[in-house]
Amino acid sequence: MKNILTVLAVTAATALPLAATAAEPAQPATPAQRATPATPAMPTDTGVPAQRATPAQPATPADPAKPPSQGVAPEAGRTELPPMFKELDKDKDGQISKDESKRSAETKADFDSMDTDRNGKISLVEWSAADKAKRSKQ
């Protein structure tokens, strides 16, 4: 019985590192959780063998198609950018730079007042706030 447990422990110990290195993700991944160590084999009155280690969960690769978030969308559930914002955002980074704003006389004139965080770009949150303020004045 002791030999069987030893063989199982050695097999599990050599299989886990091989499984972890079998497929390497192309993008940075979240670290895998550590395996739960096996309960040491102790002689018991019941004759129940020691538990095997719980295998580590595979790493979750980063989603390369998803650009980094540039802030929270002002309206829950919004899936489309406003047409003018989308047209001005030439580099599709989710923000309008001072250079991109030059394509619209109105946006160029209002750029500094719309850029409330003064980072040189108008985010969707800033755009929506300015649009809402503009509508409330009408």
Automatic annotation (TrEMBL):
This is EF-hand domain-containing protein. Residues 22-63 have a biased composition (Low complexity). SUPFAM superfamilies: EF-hand (SSF47473). Residues 22-138 are annotated as: Disordered. The keyword 4Fe-4S does not apply. Residues 102-137 form the EF-hand domain. It comes from Aromatoleum evansii (Azoarcus evansii). Residues 86-120, 129-138 have a biased composition (Basic and acidic residues). The keyword Oxidoreductase does not apply. Residues 1-22 form the signal peptide. InterPro entries: EF-hand-dom_pair (IPR011992), EF_Hand_1_Ca_BS (IPR018247), EF_hand_dom (IPR002048). Keywords: Signal. It comes from the Bacteria. CDD domains: EFh (cd00051).
